[in-house]
Amino acid sequence: MIRVVIPHHLRTLAQVNKEVELNIEGPVTIGAALDALEARYPMLLGTLRDQVSFQRRPFIRFFACGEDYSHESLDTLLPEAVILGKEPFRIVGAMAGG
After folding, report:
1. CATH code where residue 34 lies
2. Would 69 be classed as within a structural domain?
3. Number of domains in the chain
4. CB atoms within 10 A of CB 34
């Protein structure tokens, strides 16, 4: 079981609290976490990544154990602390502008 924290606007869309718990079979990668999140909350399809290319949407960032995983491959394994549920996988809505 991993813990995932999602941004407020997506919490509202999915009608969940700040943190959700997901069970993932097999290697716990960034892609597997996103697949599990979208499978459990289909209303999030297309909000985190493009539905065709599966590339991360602009202004969406991924963090684990204080490290930025936003530019890592979807096949990148998440840290052990995330896999064990000690630390959450964080999805953050970034902002731009001045």
Report:
1. 3.10.20.30
2. yes
3. 1
4. 21
| pTM (global) more than 0.85 | yes
Which residues, at least 6 apart from 22, have a Cβ–Cβ distance to it below 8 Å?
1, 2, 4, 33, 36, 37, 40
Give yes or no for a contact between 38 and 24, defined as CB atoms under 8 angstroms apart. no
Q: Give residue-wise pLDDT tens across range 29-83.
A: 999 999 999 999 999 999 999 989 989 998 999 999 999 999 999 999 999 999 9
* Beta strand pairing call for 67-68 and 60-64: antiparallel
Is 98 contained in some domain? no
Q: Which of 12, 17, 1 is nearest to 44 (CA)?
A: 12
> Quick check: 18 pLDDT over 90?
no
User: Residue 24 belongs to what domain range?
Assistant: 2-93
Question: Sheet holding 60-64: strands in order across?
Answer: 19-22, 2-5, 89-93, 60-64, 67-68
